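This part of the workshop introduces the protein records we will be handling. The structure tokens are whole numbers drawn from a learned vocabulary of backbone shapes. The record below serves as our worked example for the rest of this section.

===
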Amino acid sequence: MQISTALLLNAQTTTTTVDKKVSQEALKQAFLSATEAPSATPPPTSSNVKEIVANLLGSLVSEAKSKSAILDLLQNTPVFKNLGNFTNDLKSLITFLKSEPSLEKPLLFLQNFEKNIQSVDAKILKEQVQNSGVFLESKLANTLSKEAVVSDVKSLVTELKEHLSQTNKSASLTKEMATLIQKLENPKEMLPSELQSTLKSVLDLFRQSVKQHLSFESPPMLKDANQIVNKLENSIKQMALITSKIENSPQSVEIEQHFTAQVKELLSTLKQELPKIISNENEMKPLVVQIETLVSKPSLVMQTVVTQDELSIQDQLTMLTNRIKTQIAISDPSAPKQAHYIDSRTQLEQRIVSLLKPEVFISPAVMQKLSLNLTDVEMLSDMKGVLTHLHENLTTSTSPKANEALEATNKLLTQIDYHQLASFVSSSAHLYIPFTWEGLSGGSMQMKQTQENHFHCQIDLDLEQYGKINMMLLLSQDKYIDITIATQKNELKEKVSEHLSSLKQALNEVGLITGSIKIIEYKETNGAKNDYFADEQLNFGINISI
């Protein structure tokens, strides 16, 4: 999302009660008073930390301080090292709200933000992070969303036109699509709600056009053969993962046998299709021999010895599929053409869906119980929006515990402000997620792309019973993963070692191929952790406090 710096910072500071025209001397004094020795001053409250953050935002707007200077203050000022534990603070606030029937609405919304580590849904988690108010307030994000998607919508329009030019469809559908695409050619002129509505209509008509095209087109003569070759290609792509599963699973024999049987079945079916693909028997014979040779092998996964003159099984299968694909394209060009059309359809449909606003994550039951409309839900699907709304209610509450709850609410809002500011001045993403996990005292997770196909993730956890554990993960080429694990206590080290095989199997199940997994001595300093992957520059871009 492209966001104007001035607009962002002005929007941030307009939500505070602190005057933007704070002098540099006042800002300096605010920091001095908040960072003096504990013996000289009382512990800082959420209100004065919030004031400091607001002052820093003001200094960014006026360009009185650079981003690097403010980042240094955020990282090295003691007052910011004691902002509290977000999950625990949220739990305390929720406990209070349970005793106040008049605050049922914010209670249900806040409970919805809690995430149990054992049952978290990845898709919902992603949507909540995107709408959490950590990066920007929702209103600002909604205001600027039109600017953010303009280039994407224009690119989509170009791709849609090209795809639809190859689509055989009815005249009425063509007219409807043309009208909608014409509207999308000027996304700046559309309100966000209108843009979303138009994209949804385009998606519906696009799907209809694909169905019509496939019903109008004559089925390719070699459609079945082309599908078999595509399945065989997909199997070849899975061979590295299957090999990893065989190495890590106690059911290795069953996995190997199952995969081999599947590939042999595809090869046998493809052999039956060859006469339809190649009419010349002399040209067909070498392919038949190659298929029969592969089918006769006991395993199509593990090949322990490959001589200099012998190709690996994977190379043999790849060569075979490429030859047959070439013959299909010659004998029946419509078969690969239709397959390409379907692939293109899938990618384009995903593009349209990605531009659509994510569906709100509040359950229909909660919406009905609170008599909420969609607008209410969208506003309160933002963590900061919920807390701000709650702050207003608590300010006028007559409950004897209202002041305590108000302080907890301010504390949570201060943490959000801090992370928003840290995100901006570090050009990265600092956020927190209220994970709930029995036995977890706290932790953090940091992620960074260090090379084109290299992603690092550092996970630090503080466990009540087992002490601290640090994990460094390296993901390369979207599927190969290497892990280094450092444990503070030997008891945890033994448990990790005991369950390494289960970890490898779990990684295989989500499509990851395990490389090296090392267990080393825990190092307390942050600098030492970078030694785990000393060849990489680990300036993490996403930081999550747990």
Remarks:
- The CA atoms of residues 308 and 315 lie 13 Å apart.
- Residues 138-165 form the longest helix (28 residues).
- The chain has five domains: 5-82, 86-139+360-401, 140-219+347-355, 223-331, 438-545.
- Residues 1-43, 134-145, 532-537 have pLDDT under 50 and may be disordered.
